[in-house]
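Now for a sample.
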Amino acid sequence: MIDFLLHLEQMLPSLLDSYGLWIYAILFLIILLENGSVFMFFLPGDSLLITIGALCSTTELIHLHYMDILLFIASILGYILNYYTGRALGLKFFSQHSCWFKTEYVQKTTDYFEKHGGKTILMARFIPFVRSFAPFAAGSGYMRYPSFMLYNVIGAWIWISLLLGIGYGMGNLFSSVLNFFSR
């Protein structure tokens, strides 16, 4: 099962053949979980989005615009879930594991997110492990929610659209090259 999840982007074409339109729900859940839990950092995000974009260019079963909207929503909801998990459990986690985390670290985290929280939330989208941890840290560091949401939405839009677009362009380029040489 773990091998399946780690190499999901390679199995996406066969999943598409097997599950048809259910692929929308499957991919929604994967992006939601990867963004919504600190413990799901191992799920493919970037490579999966590029693969989805490439598949959108080569098959008529999934459409780029629908996938873009759906995964944009999943990404935003995942960060919101992770933010509130950090808000609810962050301080409890830090205080229960005080041999690893000191109370001063929580204050430093809060100070950091007051100063650099927006940039962190925005840029974290493009760094796999950080993508899963940043919203949790923002919640536990009590980053202001309106600011968090602004950067969450902007970051999700850029991340999803850019990587799906790259995949779509690469898929079109690859199919054009194949068509050129198959003449």
